[in-house]
Amino acid sequence: MIALFLLKKKPIEANSFQVNEQQAIRVLFIGNSYTYVNDLPWLTQQLAESAKETRTLETEMVVVGGATLKSHWKSGKALKLLRAKQWDYVVLQEQSTLPITNPKEMYKYASLFDAEIKRVNSQTVFYLTWAKQNQPETQQILTDSYMAIAKKLKAKVAPVGIVGQKVQEANPKFNLYNPDQSHPSPIGSYLAACVFYKTFYQGSLVGLSRRIYSSQFNTPQEGNTVELESLSETDAQIIQNLVEDIVRKI
Question: Disulfide: which of 111, 171, 214, 244 matches 226 by Cβ 3.0-4.6 Å?
């Protein structure tokens, strides 16, 4: 059974006072398991907390395993939430292989969503995903598909797949994939979170948290957490520096 997730992530606050809603950066993620495995929105919030950003990050996600933008559009749940609240950014993540096999369908529904996003005075961000581990040659096709529609719609791009490829070239020992060779490992999701943090905030990643926790437990400040991974300072810097360089050029 394919499960629908419609989750709200409250902003993680560094101080005890209530942060005014207008001070938060509010992001809606629309996608599938590439977004909800390891809870990418929550990991991105952790980085914003680590950076002690004055504007906290508040996220919600509408995610269904294997979903396409077409299926999200037909379902209507993402559109309902998109129209119900104010968002700074709306992240669109297409099914993993559709940009390769049927880019025309991707472009059609990406354009429909983008028109609605513009109507609510928000900004579209395309989540440029990665090639499957055993098909690295398809990364360029994925990249070209996402970059083409983003250019046409004047949208932003979070170049996760591009960064992942460069990180693997810099250190082939990095394990960015789950055993299924498709979904992200905790490090793969951390890399994606770094890209989204840089896309939303523009601030430097260098020196931010390199510990990756499960979102199913309390925040690190409250204890009782499960640590999924802890990167060495050197490995974290490889990822952070490549993200800084690539996102700046997109």
Answer: 214
Q: What pTM, to 2 d.p., does this model score?
A: 0.88
Tokens found for residue 142: 């994925």
Domain for residue 210, yes or no? yes
In a domain, 17, yes or no: no
H or E element, residue 242: helix 233-249
The CATH number for 137's domain is 3.40.50.1110
DSSP element (H, E) containing 7? strand 4-9
Whether the predicted pLDDT of 44 surpasses 90: yes
Q: Decide if 170 contacts 164 (C-beta within 8 A).
A: no
Domain count of the chain? 1
pLDDT in tens, 92-135: 999 999 999 999 999 999 999 999 999 999 999 999 999 999 99
Among residues 195, 59, 198, the alpha carbon closest in space to that of 128 is found at 195
